[in-house]
Amino acid sequence: MSTTIDSIPTTFEPGTPGYEAARAGFDLSAIPAPELAVSARDEADVAAAVRFAAERGMPLGVRTTGHGPVRGADGGVLVDTRALSWVTVDPTGRTAVVGGGATWTPVLAACAPSGLIPLCGSSPDVGVASYTMGGGLSPLGRLHGWAADMVRRVRLVTADGEVRDVTADSDPELFAAVRGGGGNLGIATELEFDLVPGDAMYGGGLFQPGECAPELLATFGRVTASAPDALSLSVAFVTFPDLDVVPAPLRGRYVAHLRVTFVGAPAEAERLIAPLRAVATPILDSVRPLPVLEFGTIHGDPARPQPVSSGGTVLPAWDDAAIEVLLGDIGPATPHMLELRHLGGALARPAAVQDCVGHRDAAFNVFTSAYPGPAFADAARLQTAFHQRLLPWSGGRSLFNFTSRPDGGPIDPRAVFEPATLARLQQVKAAVDPQGLFRPGVAIAAPALAGVSA
Ligand SMILES: Cc1cc2nc3c(=O)[nH]c(=O)nc-3n(C[C@H](O)[C@H](O)[C@H](O)COP(=O)(O)OP(=O)(O)OC[C@H]3O[C@@H](n4cnc5c(N)ncnc54)[C@H](O)[C@@H]3O)c2cc1C
Predict the structure, then answer these.
(1) Quick check: CB of 232 below 6 Å from ligand 1?
(2) Which secondary structure element, helix H or strand E, spans residue 288, and what is its range?
(3) Is the beta carbon of 309 within 6 A of some atom in ligand 1?
(4) Fewest CB atoms within 10 Å of the CB: 87, 149, 205, 307?
(5) Are the beta carbons of 74 and 32 closer than 8 angstroms?
(6) Distance between CA atoms of 158 and 236, rounded to whole angstroms?
(7) How close is the Cα of 191 to the center of ligand 1, in Å?
(8) pLDDT of res. 408
(9) C-alpha of residue 31 to centroid of ligand 1, in Å
(10) Distance from C-alpha of 299 to C-alpha of 280, rounded to nearest angstrom
(11) Residue 426, H or E segment
């Protein structure tokens, strides 16, 4: 008997109340257009929606917050996981169990009383499941590794509609694939992962005039070359809009935003970043002892839903010629933000239980992102041209979670995974989703279908 979803009252068709809320999230540039949007109330709803789509050969997409590209749902079924938002923390075992629709905000809140913290990314508004399954690059990553490395268990609804508790013991290959392979293997309804100490953090943002970019970047290169794993640095060059939501000193200004995360004594952090501080008098300085709950203020990512156009790539090493390309791209008139994150440290070391995070050995992540403004219409073209100029150094490689084409076009998974990792992922895909039901932004095809998604 074929599966029906009539019994799920939170299933919405176009034009019905609930449809818009179920499909629209943070990024308003690519809102999916499903025939049915299922706001799953629990794991059983997720499984029913998957079976419903699979039995009818309908496209299927997944959406938690809409921070990433939500692909695959047009003309088919969209599963909205937000109601699966439970969070429990075990302070003694230093672990957390969270629903597949949770964001980092409640996880940080649940961790704070015990002085623990997850390997959350720059924005606490992002969904835990997709972020973690896509690798998960945290400002604490240089000290502790990728968020995917911390996972103990993933509860996954696979393409056959079955629910699997996936661990290193239950299914080693699927466990490896789901930690780095993103949403290609199924829909996560629950994750269990390790937490790390969060009671000795120091960090925040240091804003300097954008005109100091050449000296600041040169200093950034020297400081990161000898930085201990406890220090994570990134720098973004951005022209802030002249809006009330922006702190007054930054409104309408082109600035360099240095982001500092350190675990250890404040005096040691200050010693390490002193050369960067010396470049220019700060316009704004929020570097301080950092409570767990304020982790999101290090980067201060935008929270308001709006159209976004972005692109990312990695650099294998510091190279002055590549930095010249960055310098050529930034300036007060550039419509996109350009961010350089230092990687390395524990990010470059193997996970205790091998996973499928691509490009662990990259030295820097280069990310561009544009939000609506006077030159937004040009943003995709300019970002694409910039990332092309970086090709001699980047080789077009990128991290799963930072892979999106500014023009919204399809992504070749060979850009995201080394050949051996991609071959491993394709084998697992062939075993659990041979028809390619799950097709996230970086879609992996089973070997028989290889070439379809690239
Ligand atoms: C402002 C901002 C800051 C960011 N900072 C970081 C960062 O510091 N480090 C980092 O690594 N990444 C970062 N990212 C990238 C982010 O991790 C990815 O975009 C991620 O996919 C967002 O997941 P989501 O669930 O919030 O978004 P959604 O758009 O809801 O989901 C994106 C895709 O993820 C998959 N997915 C979502 N939920 C599930 C689920 N329960 N099970 C299976 N698949 C699912 C689906 O394929 C879905 O289409 C950032 C993104 C933004 C916009």
Answers:
(1) no
(2) strand 288-289
(3) no
(4) 307
(5) yes
(6) 38
(7) 15
(8) 77
(9) 15
(10) 20
(11) helix 419-432
Residues 106, 68 contacting (CB under 8 angstroms): no
Mutate to test the pocket of ligand 1, among 26, 64, 232 (most ligand atoms within 8 A of CB): 64
d(CA 165, CA 75): 30
Ligand 1 center–CA 284 separation, angstroms: 29
The pLDDT, as a whole number, for residue 454 is: 29
Residues of the chain with pLDDT > 90, as a percent, come to 87
Distance from residue 69's CA to the centre of ligand 1 (Å): 8
Domains annotated for the chain, with CATH where assigned, are: 11-80 (3.30.43.10), 87-197 (3.30.465.10), 201-413 (3.40.462.20)
The pTM is what? 0.96
Structure confidence at residue 69 (pLDDT): 78
Q: How far is the CA of 410 from the centre of ligand 1 (A)?
A: 17
pLDDT at residue 448 tops 80? no
Q: Share the mean pLDDT of the chain.
A: 95
Is the CB of residue 256 less than 8 Å from the CB of residue 212? Answer: yes
**Cα four-point dihedral sign 234, 334, 275, 362:** positive
Predicted local confidence at residue 46, as pLDDT: 98
Looking at the CA of residue 100, tell me the nearest atom of ligand 1.
41
Furthest-apart CA atoms within the chain: distance in Å: 71
Tell me, using a 6 A CB cutoff, whether residue 63 lines ligand 1. yes
121: closest CA among 17, 234, 264, 31?
A: 234
Distance 221 CA to ligand 1 centre (A): 29
Report in angstroms the alpha-carbon separations of 394 from 2, 119, 192, 444: 48, 26, 34, 21
Best substitution site from 50, 67, 85, 137 to test ligand 1's pocket, by max atoms within 8 Å of Cβ? 67
Residue 293 CB neighbour total at 10 angstroms: 15
- Unique residue bearing structure tokens 């925040």: 204
Examine the pLDDT at 452 and tell me if it is beyond 60: no
Name every residue whose Cβ is closer than 8 Å to that of residue 48 and which is 6 or more positions away in sequence: 3, 5, 8, 161
pLDDT digits (tens, 9 = 90+) for 72-110: 899 999 999 999 999 999 999 999 999 999 999 999 999
* Distant-in-sequence, close-in-space partners of 14: CB < 8 Å, separation ≥ 6: 33, 35
Reading the block at residue 91, the tokens are 């302070």
Q: What angle do CA 316, 71, 56 make, to 5 degrees?
A: 135
Going by alpha carbons, the residue nearest to atom 32 of ligand 1 is 68
Predicted confidence band at 453 (pLDDT cuts at 50, 70, 90)?
very low
- The CB of 311 under 6 Å from ligand 1? The reply is no
Centroid of chain to Cα 89: 22
Tokens 């995709």 correspond to what residue?
A: 380
